[in-house]
Amino acid sequence: MKNILFIGTTHMNIYMDVIAEMQRQGYSVDFIPEKTQLDDPDNVRGYAGISRILRVHPKTFRKKNEQYWRDILAADKYNRIYDILFVLDGQSVSPCVFDILRERNPKLYAVNYLFDTVKCVYHFERNFNKFDKVATFDIAESKQYGIGHLPIFWVESDCNVNLQYKTFGLGRIDMKRYKIFKFFDQLASQFDIPSYIKLQVDRYSFFMLKYFIRKLFGCVVLTPEVYYSDLCCQMSLSPSDFRKKIMESEIVIDTAPNNQDGLTARFMWALGAKRKIITTNEHVLKYPFYSPQQILVVNADDIEKNKPYVISFMEKALQIPSDKLEEIDKCRIDHWLEALLPASE
Fold first, then answer.
1. Which of 6, 179, 187, 188 sits at a 20 to 30 Å CA gap from 57?
2. What is the dihedral of CA 141, 144, 145, 147, to 10 degrees?
3. Nearest alpha-carbon partner for 85 in 106, 115, 67
4. How many structural domains is the chain composed of?
5. Does an H or E element contain 23, and which?
6. CA torsion through residues 329, 330, 335, 337, sign
7. Residue 196: beta bridge partners?
8. What is the CA radius of gyration of the chain?
9. Which helix (H) or strand (E) holds 289?
């Protein structure tokens, strides 16, 4: 049995699926959650402006962070020989981690998978030369850094779920997503279509006061019209509940952030569940599993003009070509993991 040290982001509990699959494949797994720190100089979304100047001290941080990792790896639980180091994202992972683990086992195999981007989240590239293999969900960054490209995985879901909705969409508020969700919400009302379409907003106290202050400085992101609309809610779904909603829906609405071309976990979960997908991510056309029978690409700014095409896509029965089903199967978590980890001896 091979021992794996797994360091990863806890975002959306994706790490739990990875651990379960590694254990199913016979690995012994120890997990350390990555530590996102605002004063990390490599954290793109950390402190900004004056706060960054006052609080970010690279030399001090790196010294503190190295000691943090040395203490963890010296603890009884992790003071052992590992065959594989698997890092999912890996914010604030000190270079000393690789030195310590390779001192214990010179044959250590280190692999890094990026669920987030370098340009908008963290300078993961600073550790790329420490790994034997690096892969990302983002096509552009795979080319930029000369690393592998691998879509996010999907996992098998409970198929014994009754369809409840024609359309399902849930995501954090942004204006592009608001345009798309509002369109489908109106479509659901017009044709009496059962739907679950919600935008997640933060619990803003004194929202109107903040709105006028932001408007004064020209940095309005969320207007009262949007914030107080019926589409907005102050709730979230766990990953398992999110996947259940996908299984209960015939069509999943997916919107891509402007700063990435990689496909979202939401998209991949819907793909694996064999659901129809309406997405704003035009980069999906480059993927071998793309088929117009399952996936419709729309533009938020032109969606009203394309209303007849959207309605036609929604009304057609789903028939995924067999060759596309084979490509979709390659992204299932067991195959995804096999693509990253070294082959068993």
1. 6
2. 60
3. 106
4. 2
5. helix 14-24
6. negative
7. 168
8. 22
9. none
3-state secondary structure of 270: helix
What pTM does this model have? 0.91
* DSSP three-state, residue 41: coil
**41, 99: one domain:** yes
What is the rounded distance in angstroms from the CA atom of residue 277 to the CA atom of residue 108? 40
Please tell me the predicted confidence (pLDDT) of residue 38: 96
Q: What confidence score (pLDDT) does residue 158 get?
A: 73
Neighbouring CB atoms inside 10 A of 48's CB total 11
CATH of the domain at 132: 3.40.50
118: its two tokens: 């370098």
Same domain, 314 and 172: yes
Whether residues 194 and 56 share a domain: the answer is no
CB within 8 A of 133, min separation 6: which ones? 109, 110, 111, 112, 148, 340
SS3 288: coil
Mean pLDDT by 10 residues, the chain (345 residues): 96 92 97 96 95 96 98 97 98 98 98 96 98 97 97 87 93 85 94 92 68 66 72 82 94 87 94 96 96 95 90 95 97 97 81
Residue given tokens 């969320």 in the structure block: 222
On whether residue 337 sits in a domain, the answer given is: no
Which structural domain range is residue 202 located in? Answer: 165-329
pLDDT at residue 216 in the model: 66
Contact 272, 239 (CB under 8 A): no
| Residues 16/88, Cβ–Cβ less than 8 Å | no
Lookup: tokens for 179: 């345009």
